[in-house]
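Our preliminary data section would be incomplete without showing what the modeling component actually yields. Below, a chain of 258 amino acids is followed by its predicted structure, encoded as tokens that our downstream tools consume directly.
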Amino acid sequence: GLIVNTVENGTLTVESVTFPNDLASDGTVETSSGNAGLLVGEVKDGATLSIGTLTNVPTATVQSTNGSAGGVVGLVGSSTGAMVDVTEALDLHALTVKGTTASGGFIGKATNLTLTIADGVAIKPARSVGDENSACSGGVIGDVSFAQGFTVTPDIFGLGGLVTLGASQRAGALFGMADISNGDIVVQGGTYKSKLASGKDGVVSGSYGGLVGKVFAMAKGDNDALRAFVVQKDADNKKTCSIEFDLASGLSDAGGVV
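Predicted structure:
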């Protein structure tokens, strides 16, 4: 990442960054031996990344040829989990993101993620995510499990038109793959438009969904509650969920939602 490669522990607070004009045209943040993000490569278990204002975000490519890549951070947690806190609106639309393990317009891959977004704040992820070498690609996060249930309200992820995806296994406008073992994911309204433009040799041997490529959960005990991926109107019961998807590359399974 341009700020730091790895947040080992504690909290890294990025209050404000203005990117220089000479970085704003076709630059590359790239690694061949880890994870890549515009700001940070990896946030380790137990650590926190707090993100404030990003100005003049470049028309650049964030890429890992041997790991995960995300618009802001490539990898968040690997076991017990880590936190990402967003305090100001983010516009990452200009970025192109490519990672081999996972690609996400905001975060590449996250395990037991705690994601907090300040009231009234919207994240606009990258609009070009993944390619034929990316295992999982999501408009927001490529591969995710949350520390507990998570609700996607209509305005927190401003996909803002079409997100173009590429993947060899899983792809979706929100998440390429979502593990809901720790709690339900609820999508309350919003507009999601995506296009699967490339797969491995023109054929994705996996799944592409209008919201998520694959949803699964692991049983934790005989008395553990069933988990669900829920799509519904917003909290005011006014805004429905609008999903458009365009299958421009072959794959084995496709669904309007999952």
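The mean pLDDT is 89. The radius of gyration is 17 Å. Preliminary results of this kind motivate Aim 1 of the renewal.
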